[in-house]
Amino acid sequence: MGRTGQEFIRFVIIGGINTVTYYVLYLLLHSSLEMEYMFSHIVAFFISMVISFFLNSYITFKVKPTLVKFLTFPLTQLFNFAVSSFFMFVLIEYFHVSSTITPIFAVIIAVPMTFLVTGKVLKKESVAG
User: Fold this and answer.
1) What percent of the chain has a predicted confidence (pLDDT) above 90?
2) pTM for the model
3) I want to staple 30 with a disulfide (CB 3.0 to 4.6 A). Which of 40, 56, 60, 119 is the partner?
4) Taking a C-beta distance cutoff of 8 angstroms, is the pair 49, 74 a contact?
5) With contact defined as beta carbons under 8 Å apart, do 99 and 40 qualify?
6) In 41-110, which ranges are E strands?
7) Per residue, what are the HEC states of 53-116?
């Protein structure tokens, strides 16, 4: 298996950890604390994104995290966030799917695209280091 294949496997494993982290936070905020589903989604997504940055830097792509990469990393998650938010909204509001399970459906959609974008950002050498 090539380097990209190994990275993708690590990315999927880290993604699994990240998804569980996100989902536990989402359920805690939405179900336990009875916060609105989209607010819960945004807060849980942000926290899990920070964790994802460090796990993907150190484990998936084996690069040193830098401030420039940390500030650029959210751009890699923009597609993921937009797609998951859109699908959550549509599934909940139009198809009346339970707001406790829609994040699971939404997260499956963006994994390959997010992997490619994340790899490009984290592997990019920057002048500021």
Assistant:
1) 53
2) 0.75
3) 40
4) yes
5) no
6) none
7) HHHHHHHHCCCCCCHHHHHHHHHHHHHHHHHHHHHHHHHHHCCCCCCCCHHHHHHHHCHHHHHH
